[in-house]
Amino acid sequence: MKHFEHIVFDVDGTLADTEESVLSSLVQIVQEETGKTLPRHELEFALGIPGKDALEKLGIYSQATLDRWCQVAASFKSTISVFPGLLEVIATLADSGCKLGIVSSRARDEYAKEIAPLGFDKYFEHIILVEDTTEHKPAPAPMLEYLRRTGANPGNVVYVGDTVYDEQCATSAGVSFARAAWGSHQDIPNATYNLKTPNDLLTLTTK
């Protein structure tokens, strides 16, 4: 296995288990906006893309609706947690000298309220969020922004994520992709690596 100088993480479904928060709140928003109760599996496409894009695909986007979704999602904050064992592994990676980053479709205010309190921010030097690029996953722009800020060689970077959107973003930017099987519900046949547990992240490092 190749060893990487930079390991970049998606957040939702990779670092943090946010599925209950995202889907339960979206079910409620769709119900409020349309009167329809959609099954959760029909809303799983929203995992891994910006909230605005998800609402647009559902035909119910407005800034007011997006703000309302953020408000409802905040009420599910207690259901969000770091996947077991990940904080310890991330600390080990940081101690080994590996450079760690985040590329996420989260908006900055959502990230600050729901994700930052989980306690892993201190390990990440660069955090790319939805406001940092005009195009978003599955486009390569967020990863290209990470490469621009760090000056990293794409060949020395691996992106760890749980969706096809993540894989497409990584591949289009010329970096390797590792599927986080602990949080992924999708088959991602083009993944360079398939990591079964957080401990498998340690096989990607230069140390």
TrEMBL record:
Pfam family for this entry, one: HAD_2
Stored SUPFAM superfamilies: HAD-like
Hydrolase in keyword set: yes
Organism domain of life: Bacteria
GO cellular component labels: cytosol
Keyword terms, alphabetized: Hydrolase
Gene3D superfamilies: HAD superfamily/HAD-like, Putative phosphatase, domain 2
Keyword hit for Iron: no
Endpoints of the signal sequence: none
One MF annotation (Gene Ontology) recorded for this entry: phosphoglycolate phosphatase activity
GO biological process, one term: DNA repair
NCBIfam families: HAD-SF-IA-v1
Identification of the protein by name: HAD family hydrolase
Native source organism of the sequence: Collinsella aerofaciens (strain ATCC 25986 / DSM 3979 / JCM 10188 / KCTC 3647 / NCTC 11838 / VPI 1003)
Taxon lineage: Bacteria, Bacillati, Actinomycetota, Coriobacteriia, Coriobacteriales
